[in-house]
Amino acid sequence: MSSPLLEELGAHRRTLKSFSIEELEELATQIRGRILQVLSRNGGHLASNLGAVELTLALHYVFDFPQDTLLFDTSHQIYTHKILTDRNASFDTLRQYKGISGFSHPEESPHDPFFLGHAGAVFSLSLGLAKRRDVLQKKGHVIAFLGDASFNCGLTLEAMNHIPKNLSRFLLVLNDNAMAISKNVGNITKILSRLLNNPTSNRLTQEILTAFSKIPAYGDLLAKKGQKVSESIKNLVSPAPFFEQFGLSYTGPVDGHDLKKLIHTFSQLKEASTPVVIHTLTQKGKGLSMAIHNPSSYHGAAPFDLTSGKFLCPSSKPTFPKIFGKTITEMAAKDPSLFVLTPAMIEGASLKEFVTAFPDRCIDVGIAEGHCLTFAGALAFGRDLHPVVCIYSTFLQRALDNLFHDICLQKAPLLLAIDRAGLNGPDGVTHHGIYDLAFLNAMPHLIIAQPRNGRLLKELLHTALLEKKPFAIRYPNRETEEEDLFLETREVGKGELLVQGEKVLLLPLGHMVLEAFEVREKLLKEGICPTIIDPIFLKPLDKDLLTKAILSHELIVTLEEHSIMGGFGSILSHFCFEHNLHPSRLLHFALPDRFLHHGANRELLKEAGLDAETISQKILSCIDLNQRALVEPHDHCTLSQ
Ligand SMILES: Cc1ncc(C[n+]2csc(CCOP(=O)(O)OP(=O)(O)O)c2C)c(N)n1
């Protein structure tokens, strides 16, 4: 695919500002082509990026980055910005191990001031940067780029409430495509859709004015104060007053694909003495008809065929989230008191089947994790409804206090289905769900479990709903077996002996059972026959089973896809301490206490030493194979990574 304008820019033969409008339009086409080409191979946030090309180009044309500062909320729509800021050549490595990130990443470029990936942070960050700029008497504009769904976030609204009076050189670009990942929800969305220049709104304004002019008293008023009355009536159908009450001047709505108009408007707004919001209307998926017609499926797109747009080899194998979605729908069919809540993640959390079957019992609260948990806590009040909150591990971090205050403290009978628990490979550092055990375990009254396969997930879901207590089940986004066997409910706090051996005890968490069996195979070849126990419940732990097993083995090994800090390993260490158990040696295999970036999970696990080969080598290095006894501890085998 030839992209001559992109190549000229990349080789610094020309600057963007030297382009004519026609050339910019051609450049937009070439950038879309580049995004499609790379994402068809690597996957990524396709629809949002296709919709943001002209807006980003126009901003780069008018402003001077990085002297001016541009922050993208969530930053999933940042690809054009990356391409324009010297990362076109490396764009082929997007989301790959050691390649460039799919999100804002300061280690890549001074054009990405912050790590970003969680929605709603950018308005606050931008206000903070503007304050810093003013205190230090620095130059430059601060520009916050927000999608309409990120604009609804609580954090964004807290920032709106804190716009200082004397703020200037501050621009909020509201990229309104009426979509979150699914259709955007909430009352602010309704305010935004009262479009001043929308023909229906204009017609409505005209009709109201005509009707008023026929009433004698109002007809006179109109004649005298025509302009003012007309404006007040227009306000009824415009989002402008909403923003103006917060101190933001409103411009728009503007066609977010009209480069000429955008450049003209941005150039004017550059001179504004007040903070301004420019409300732009864009089409999510622009340039790929499949994405336009199905923006939700192409939000986070898997690799696809460039010509047809169809996804390549869609896997038919069940994953933990798919099994969750299917099971909870079946359970809801039998239990009319079951409600599912999601903070804007219907697709990712596999809730499409549920929302189709039970639209009134699927509550999408928007990107509002804290509200989601507190609201669900109240649904659980009286114990006659059964709320199930389905939330990604990494986004649950936004709602820690709500979990503490409105669920655990109240002993609310609520199921927390924690999706994407574990590494989330290509999305990288902001999206790994590897810290939740550290804070979940600190919550009194919370039951915590992790299934090793699909069947156990189903059994735990049934158990949780019978239990009627705060109950968290965490699971990763990976394939697993479903096993349509007869389902049993599980006794809370009961683990399972999977295979009996001697000397070495392997305690894998959830899907790490697979790794444990691989490790076992390798150890068997060396004459070591380890025991494997699946703890299933992390809180409460199975005291009897674990105590006996720890006392009867010499080397105790925990395996988990969670941070070493506060994960299963530390839970087990504390268990040993509390119950006066002193295993000869305790090995914890977990993710290291540093931020892990993007790549395939397999590559990240290998980097962290969590692959079967490394694990078995480390276990073997702790054993004197001739004596069949533990060797004296040395550094790398006393405690994990
Ligand atoms: C705190 C948080 N919750 C959920 C998400 C998942 N997420 C990523 S993008 C997105 C939708 C964003 O919609 P919008 O801001 O309107 O941008 P668009 O994709 O429509 O351009 C969501 C829910 C997230 N990144 N952060």
> Which range does the strand content fall in?
15-25%
Task: Characterize the biggest β-sheet.
Answer: 7 strands, mixed
Strand tally: 21
User: What is the CA–CA distance across the termini?
Assistant: 45 Å
- The outline comes out as globular
What's the average pLDDT?
92
Low-confidence residue ranges: 634-641
Percent range for helical residues? 40-55%
Round the Cα radius of gyration to an integer and report it: 28 Å
Backbone structural class: alpha/beta
Keywords:
single chain, 641 residues, alpha/beta, 27 helices, disordered C terminus, binds thiamine diphosphate
Write up this protein.
By secondary structure, the chain is an alpha/beta fold. The protein is 41% helix and 16% strand. It is built from 27 helices and 21 strands. Strands 9-8-10-11-13-12-17 form a seven-stranded mixed β-sheet, with helices on both faces. A five-stranded parallel β-sheet has the order 2-3-4-6-5, sandwiched between helices. It has a five-stranded mixed β-sheet with strand order 14-16-15-18-19, sandwiched between helices. It is globular and about 85 Å long. Mean pLDDT is 92; it is low at 634-641. Bound molecules: thiamine diphosphate.
